[in-house]
Specification:
This protein has 496 residues and is α+β, with helices and mostly antiparallel strands. 33% of the residues lie in helices and 19% in strands. It has 15 helices and 20 strands. It has helices spanning 83-86, 204-212, 215-218, 245-254, 257-273, 276-283, 299-305, 308-317, 331-339, 343-367, 374-385, 391-399, 408-426, 433-442, 485-494, and strands at residues 5-12, 16-19, 28-32, 37-43, 57-62, 65-70, 74-81, 121-124, 128-132, 141-146, 150-152, 170-175, 178-183, 187-190, 225-226, 235-236, 289-290, 296-297, 447-449, 462-464. The chain has a five-stranded antiparallel sheet. The longest helix has 25 residues, at 343-367. The chain is globular. It starts with a strand and ends with a helix.
Length: 496
Amino acid sequence: MENRVCQINAETISNANLRALYSTKYPVLMVIPKGSKIFVEFDKRYESDLPKPGSVWYRATYNGKIGYLCDITFKKLILDVEPERQTPKNQQLEETIELPEVAVSGYSSCSERVSSDDVRFVITTPDNANMRSAASVNSSTETTVPRGTILPFDKASKIDLGPKEKFPRWYKFNYNQKSGYLCDVTFVADLSPVCTGFVNPKGVCAQLIAAFNADADARRIFNEVHYYPKDAHITIGFGHFAGGTQDEFIRSMMSNAHMKKVLMGEFEKQFLQNKGFIDQARAEGFDLKLSSSNEVAGLENFLNVLKLEKEFVQASKAGKFPGGAKKTGYWLNDILVEVLLNKDICAWQVKFWLEHTLKDAKDFAVELGCGDHYGLVASLASLRSSGLMDRKDIKKLVWRNDVKPTSSSEKDAAAMRVWAYYNVAKKADKTRGRQKAIFSLWFAKSWTAVKHETCPTSIDDFKYNGTAMATASNGVAFELTTDDPYLKIISSFGSR
């Protein structure tokens, strides 16, 4: 496997502060004069996908001193030169670096962040959404956009015509080399994962991920931490990983050499930035302490024994954690909402969701005789992600006298029962955004709501028009394509 991290020759374009860690909050080790030649450690995975200037920090070497520089302080001179040819003798970057005031344990190899809540993509829901030449239904149609199309989205392109409750919002998009406007009733917003390049935005898996992030009610963003006493489980991250799987999510990273470094590096950074968190963790029985060299001792054991659900339940009972997805003052929550935005950890969230939540749904759909049915698998994944997939109850609901569905219409009816079952299992008073998006993508062409539109609870609330719902031609719904970026990213984790 190609080594993705290389060193480059660079030159400072201003007097640059070499800092102890990757933030202006950390001490300045020295000021590097303008025009100085430096060596910068650069991760090639993100060369063509960097955030805005000023938001990325790189590990750099100057006159034997090692620290961090912001990207706006230097320019690249030569790319892809092997470190051993570029670094003078005795100036090789070490895996463990000792710096004044703050020690870096060498855990983290990727500090790039993913935005927590930027809306960057939308997914269209009608059969053919009319892209207009202007922000009005009276304007001409430039082109039509098929159902399930994922489009790049720019919040700055919004045109306000008045109060939202009276007027629709219009946004400008580009599709098939044409530019035009879509009304916000023709799409649902996706809050993160598809836009970060982890899955192919033209693939059917991307459609499902976009559906899971549909509208603000779903809030399936990468760094959500959600626990309320009325819910059965704490859920974290874009996949929510309900039913205790969030602990398995942490363990899976600790069992991978590369992800272990990233996770420990992110936790250590948070503990060093907020040293009061160490005292709070110790008060809850964790053997953590700040060493004489300013490192967090006991961190690996802490992550190996950490049980997130247990900790959040106890914190909630003690009044330390009020629930929600923002910083609350509770140490473990406030650490997680930062740690979960590391770009490698975001990619791992996608990996974990696909290999656990979605796989469980697909396996159960095969058992039900409907492994090729997109609507049924999507509905099962929705239940699994919320910790509501009661297999025994669903079998009774779908099989009806233990006879597996065989015809298209029977499978479609089974899918509708599973979709509606979510509202019953959740005891919901309204249909949540994720369920609406799943319905729009895989049910709406075949089913029409006839009653209980606020929160349908049974197949009797819908009328079937005889149009068969979508099934996979290869017999397995939601398979990744061979060119999917996810496969390349995750394979690289296994080799490091």
